[in-house]
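Subject: sequence -> structure tokens, single chain

Hey, anyone have a minute? Need the predicted structure for the following. Not urgent.
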Amino acid sequence: MQHLLLLDLPTASPAFAQLLIQPGLPATATLCRQALVLEQEAPREDAQAAWLTPAERWLLHALRLGGAEAEQAPWARLAALADGAADAFPADQPLCLLTPAHLRLGRDSLTLTDPAALDLSADEAQQLFAAVAPLFAEAGWTLRHVTPLRWYAAHSSLADVVTAGVARAQGRSVAAWMPGGPAARPWRQLLTEVQMTWQHHAANEARAQRGLPDVNTLWIHGCGALPPDWRSPLRLTDADDAVSDPALAAALRGLALRPRAGTLAPLRLFDARTLLAEDPAQGMRQLDDALSAAIAQAVLQDGGVQLTLAGALRWRTLQIRRPQDWKFWRRTDLLTLLRGL
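Reply:
Had a minute. Here:
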């Protein structure tokens, strides 16, 4: 059966609560009015501070890669497969993703800004990479540059380092999202050297002259281990769909390059963060059109579909079946289910 994942719903936002009223999701709500709650994540007291987003936690659950308390995801290992970089790193060595980024200094805090807004060119990224590559080599790290915003590094200390993804920490003070504890000490020491090297680098000086923010940090994430005998139960469809987190998108593309676990269930993503970014009301209508069309098509083809709603606090999976399977006494209110996320 096909899986649909609606991720990063801003359910904690009062503005989103208003969007649920107008324009709402009328077509999707109609198709879900007899849906069953198949499974859902238990409420978490640490939901706002958890290292992984609810969408990431559901993905680990669906991919059979971690339990309810998992704090780390193997996005680096999977993304490296998609990027053709996996062979550069020993299979038994912990691997992480590194994203060049800008930390904005505020009155009382440092905030991680959107790396995509840097508009970092391939030439600039290569210059910055070349400047710090010797630092990594001297510290015993293996470093690779794949795209301007997607680098990889491997080191034994990463086995116990817990991190948050860019999408999780973006727009927030980084104090709560920087990896801590003894295991992260090698990374913090190396990052300090990187930041000092880049402070007056020619590429950053040129960016400043053009009025662009400097690249002043590397964001580390996706350090989880991928079991050597693991086989993916899912395959991503519609890989060209916009996903706001490019590292996660690359990781999901990597699923196709892992050994299969029998017949793979198709997975399709709908990214609320991307759709609602510019014009929330119009984005909500586009989301309703696209999601209801996908549900209707899956029900027609397969007799049913599973829809996972991932909000700010938790996730919930619904099972939707064809109209002839409906029970007249069952009434499922999609808006109520969304408000509980």
